[in-house]
Amino acid sequence: MKVAVAGCCHGALDKMYETLELLQRRHNVRPDLLLCCGDFQAVRNEADLHCMAVPAKYRHMQTFYRYYSGEKKAPVLTVFIGGNHEASNHLQELPYGGWVAPNIYYLGYAGVVRFRGVRIGGISGIFKSHDYRKGHFECPPYNQQTIRSAYHVRNIEVFKLKQLKRPIDIFMSHDWPRSIYHYGNKKQLLKMKSFFRQEVESNTLGSPAASELLQHLKPAYWFSAHLHVKFAAFMQHETNSKEELPKATKFLALDKCLPHRDFLQQIIDVEHDPNAGDSLEYDAEWIAVLKATNSLVNVTQSTWNMPEKNGLHAKWDYSATEEAIKEVLEELNHDLKIPCNFTLTAACYDPNKPQKNMEPVHTINPQTTEFCAQFGLTDINDRIQQAKEEGSRRGECEEEEGEEMDSTGSAEEPSEYNTDNSGLSSFNPDEIMLDEEGGDEDLSTCSVDPSPDHPPEFSMSFSDIRIMPDSMAVSSDDAMDSNNEELEKSGGSNQVEEKSSTERSLKRVGGDENGNSGIKKIKRRNQAIYAAEDEDKTD
Known about the structure:
Distance between the termini: 36 Å
CATH topology: Purple Acid Phosphatase, chain A, domain 2
CATH class: Alpha Beta
Mean pLDDT: 79
Structural class: alpha/beta
Helix content: 25-40%
CATH architecture: 4-Layer Sandwich
Radius of gyration: 22 Å
Low-confidence stretches: 404-539
């Protein structure tokens, strides 16, 4: 079957679907499935706009609301993950995934589904070390911190995905797996985007959590977006035993939605089960993993390490047994079809009756209620509501409860992964420029161009084969960077434990002992990128 893959569409659904229809008319190419790698912007109304972490000038309604209201319907089944520019209050209603509009399915914080026998997984958000071990505690109305932390990846989602044993065909993440740039045309990437050089050379560009998943899952395809630049890589994985067959991953980072000539290069042919139906289906192993890990759900700000085999946990393997998978199949009577149970949960934008003062509310979505009841799972939003009510009755705020719990439990245990203690560089372009100023990189140049002597096939975009190392985690020195962003925001108040390590971190990125020149450098970079984006919009 043909699968189209899109980068950040930023709510421009009309443009994206019109591009696909143009492809069909001009090239007789019609995809069976469309995947979107984040920054989908499922904005229903003015309240949703207030829940997007972007500067005011980028808060535009765009066209998703027409699909939400039923005025239009997506012409192709669309599956997407969340990025860092989303209506977080809307997506938060569906932590386990669900329909945001007819024929448009969100994978949730993390998820795996099947379509025509093809197994598709994904993880939403971007990596941020200081939020990685927290629970999903945020809910609207958000403040300046939670409007950002709401889309930060959490260790529990990575842990769940690492319990999977069966092969994954396609996987999506919004930010790139760290180190992936070493397996493609890195020279061309740095030639076109020179401000990536520092992060690439120090191996701090991208998500270390995504790197762990890439190494564990070894999917046939991995798609990302976020940096607004097209980049391809081919990664040959090491085998764990002589009996294991070699595996390789084709990686492609997508630019934002582009004209049809570029979209044509982002349609791939994927082997599928010809006997499978045309409905989106649950994945039995994933459901079994959700059931097995349900007791690990955390809705507080307290940091929490996932179980590991270190003598501190009675259980650390939460992978699904064949018996557990069989039980899931029996519960569903072997009918894995995801019900088309989309429900309106908020008023839809009316261009004739704008409501600029509409405020977001914390909503429990009936799809999530039904899903949790069917499989015996915790409704995260319901748990958050309960925590808020209990805190209100005790006259205590939720933040105080989180601080109290921080001193107990497993918060002081060693990290479950190497990535728990390694942060992105404080001046990483895929993090700071988004969180500090809310803008996006406008990188529109393809890093690996197809040869003019060959058609623009997906396989032609990949460069030399290299063997993946045993671990793509960064060294312990990089762990010093995990608090740099908070230092920049607060002047180094309570986020830095030792002055000396902070000074060393700032010196590594080229600043003086107070980090001043480094901060000015990233702000100049931001201004250049924003100017480029504004130029694109006026062209």
